[in-house]
Design goal:
The structure holds two protein chains of two kinds. Chain A is an alpha/beta fold. Chain A has three domains: 5-66 and 178-249, Rossmann fold, CATH 3.40.50.11750; 71-173 and 259-305, HypD, alpha/beta domain 2 (Rossmann fold, 3-Layer(aba) Sandwich), CATH 3.40.50.11740; 320-362, no CATH class. Chain A is 37% helix and 16% strand. Chain A has 15 helices and 13 strands. Chain B is elongated, with a radius of gyration of 17 Å. Classes of the chains: A alpha/beta, B alpha+beta.
Chain lengths: 370, 81
């Protein structure tokens, strides 16, 4: 694929890795958090951890929207599907996220609920048009990459006067999560961040500046291909060696400082900040997620159906929370690869291919000693 | 989840466009990006163009990367591919 394959060249990857090996100071470590699940996946799939010097430690971050969705949020969707006769439309990954009582949207579907996997929120809109006698709810998840597409969909539904369409909104915000990671009491020592790729195409590089400045953490925004990741590691090592903590943009082919203003305006028109939102692993964070504005209350499934969020504790053996905070590696969870596998996930990090556990299970579990 | 891919715009019809992804054609929405033209590459996510891909920046990055690769080949005594 044009502008994808070129950024996966193995020879150049080895050359970059050799440059990084020359640049690291032998006596220190470089603990770099890749915030995004997309980077976690690229690192695992391309074996990047294997070509980097031992001084560079990559720590998986919370940037996988499926992973950070707490059980109570899935329960809301399952209640709508099973008890309210609603057609629930959602992205493929969310179908298998474990909820209360060993249930998931997939098991709800097996019990007869009308749950449909969609590629785009516009597909959910199409289902609403085709089923005027039924209520259709789109379970919206995602960071800033995905939020603008939900905003456009709500505006489209409004302009068409689609009265049977609504959104169960779980859109979350990257800078808030990044702030939570650096400020967690007794938290992990991160020397720098590999910054989000496609989130940054929307929000731009500017919103990361306060984190870099206030917490003295270098941040390099990087594309999701192997060479992008290696280049960002190289730049981070360089910043750390020089004692700098700046926001740098490696992904200049898609990211500008200001991002996509039109997308930002559409999001601001439809959504507003939630007072707080519970994240799996990070707990309840203020101003870290979005809800529909009052003007669009008719499209807000939470209000429309009165399904309030009820917090539910994670499975006792599941280490997703510590893994999402970067405090544990997947193989340190005692049910990793045994009771919890991609086929039968216990925790959310084993569900999406971008989840740290699934990425590790699929590409690297025989490499790293437990 | 935030996966998005660069795709070539081959046709446009108002706010919708047809993109080509290595031979796979798909209708996407241009509601989030102004000024897209046929022949542009756009970053596609869940059926929407998120941003235009800056081809000049992409080529500049690739030129730098190829230089690093060629330099390493030279150091190893191999001729650059």
């Amino acid at each position: 694929m044009k502008y994808v394959d070129e950024f996966r060249d193995a020879g150049i990857a080895r050359a970059l890795a050799a440059e990084i090996a020359r640049a690291v100071q032998p006596a220190r470590t470089y603990r770099l958090m890749e915030f995004c699940g997309g980077h976690t996946h690229a690192i695992a799939r391309n074996g990047l951890a294997d070509v980097l010097p031992a001084q560079v430690q990559l720590i998986h971050g919370p940037g996988c929207p499926v992973c950070v969705l707490p059980i109570g949020r899935m329960d809301q969707a399952i209640t709508l599907a099973l008890e309210r006769g609603v057609i629930v439309c959602t992205y493929g990954d969310t179908l298998r996220v474990p909820a209360s009582g060993k249930c998931s949207l997939q098991t709800a579907k097996a019990q007869g609920a009308d749950v449909r996997m969609v590629y785009s929120p516009l597909d959910a809109l199409h289902i609403a048009r085709s089923n005027p006698a039924r209520e259709v709810v789109f379970l919206a998840i995602g960071f800033e990459t995905t939020t603008p597409t939900t905003a456009v969909t709500v505006l489209q539904a409004q302009s068409e006067g689609l009265g049977n369409f609504s959104v169960l909104c779980n859109h979350v915000l990257t800078p808030a999560a990044m702030h939570a990671i650096v400020s967690v009491p007794g938290g992990i020592a991160v020397d720098g961040f590999i910054g989000p790729a496609h989130v940054s195409t929307v929000i731009g590089s500017a919103p990361y500046a306060p984190i870099a400045r206030d917490w003295h953490k270098p941040i390099v925004i990087a594309g999701f291909e192997a060479l992008d990741v290696l280049r960002s590691v190289q730049w981070l090592v360089c910043q750390i060696n020089e004692g700098r903590a700046e926001v740098e943009n490696e992904f200049t082919r898609a990211v500008t400082e200001q991002g996509n203003r039109k997308a930002q305006e559409l999001v601001a028109r439809v959504f507003e900040l939630r007072t707080d939102f519970e994240w799996r692993g990070l707990g309840s964070l203020p101003d870290s997620a979005l809800q529909l504005r009052a003007a669009y209350a008719g499209f807000d499934a939470e209000r429309r159906f009165g399904v309030a969020y009820q917090p539910v504790p994670d499975h006792k053996a599941c280490e997703c929370a510590a893994i999402l905070r970067g405090q544990k590696q997947p193989q340190q969870c005692r049910i990793f690869g045994t009771a919890c596998t991609p086929e039968t996930p216990v925790g959310s990090c084993m569900v999406s291919s971008e989840g740290a556990c699934a990425a590790h299970y699929n590409y690297g579990r025989f490499r790293t000693p437990a | 989840m935030c996966l998005a891919v660069p795709a070539l715009v081959v046709a446009m019809d108002g706010e919708m466009a047809t993109v080509d992804l290595d031979g796979v054609r798909k209708a996407i929405s241009l509601a989030l990006v102004d000024g897209v033209a046929v022949g542009d590459y756009v970053i596609v996510h869940v059926g929407f163009a998120l941003q235009r891909l800056d081809v000049e920046e992409a080529e500049a990055t690739l030129a730098l990367l190829r230089e690093i690769g060629a330099q390493a080949d030279g150091d190893n005594g191999a001729s650059p591919a």
